[in-house]
Amino acid sequence: MKRLATFVILGDSAAAGTGDADKNGALRGWSYYLAAHFNQPLVYANLSRPGAQSAEVFIDQLPKALVLEPTLSAVIVGGNDALRNGFNPDVLRQNLRQTLKQLREVGSEIILLQLHEPTKIAPLPKTLGKILNRRINSVNTVIRAVGAEFGAHILAVRDIPGIYDRNRWHVDRMHPSKLGHQILAQYFREILAPRWDISPVTIDPVTQRARKDSLLWMLRHATPWFLKRSVDLLPAALLLVMGEYLKILTRRDRNAQAVLYFPEFVNHRESGIAQVHEERVS
């Protein structure tokens, strides 16, 4: 008899499956499709929540996951941290380190996801887009460094061919579509297949959303979300843009931005010292 596997999902909307709901509105997402193709007994628990930041993952979701003693864990987080006022990559790093450390202590294998470049699918004003990309790059740097420290497997979304094709994204242009989630499941399956018995993930036929349906969705869902988040996002965005222009007006050098250092952990058999990566963020 094949061993029982326990697969837990921690994180935000990218983990919860936003962008891929069934006819009843229940979210599925890449982890659902991946779990459906396991050829061994599987306990599947998606503990993620849309909107979650790294602190919630560590404080609220992780304890529930540890009770299950997972053999495989996915931790997908960082995007909401980057979108909030007061974003601090070091806080993200600390929360992610503690989360991965405790999952490793119960013997769990871990998979992570590095974020795409958001302005390639959702164009923004140049200055704001530049700031957002810097923040997302700093999130990816944290994920890469912490993942390497704890031996996690990392899927870099930006390396997936054709990932910015429109049909791979939901109408909100922030989350994968059903096709996008199934493609992510395929790539995670490739990462895990050498150690887990998982069948190839199949891709369902793609149905194009009518323009009318897309507009109705935006009015019903995107507009209320935008208004709710504007209280937090807009003041932060305005302050960041103003700060960017002040740097230009005062001719401050780009290198005067805050400098953060994250260790790039390498196998000690290959190097006697830890490499250091420098990341600059607004």
Automatic annotation (TrEMBL):
InterPro entries: GDSL_Rv0518-like, SGNH_hydro, SGNH_hydro_sf
Record domain SGNH hydrolase-type esterase: where: 9-183
One Pfam family per UniProt: Lipase_GDSL_2
PANTHER family: GDSL-LIKE LIPASE/ACYLHYDROLASE, PUTATIVE (AFU_ORTHOLOGUE AFUA_2G00820)-RELATED, GDSL-LIKE LIPASE_ACYLHYDROLASE, PUTATIVE (AFU_ORTHOLOGUE AFUA_2G00820)-RELATED
Protein name (Swiss-Prot/TrEMBL): Unannotated protein
Lineage of producing organism: unclassified sequences, metagenomes, ecological metagenomes
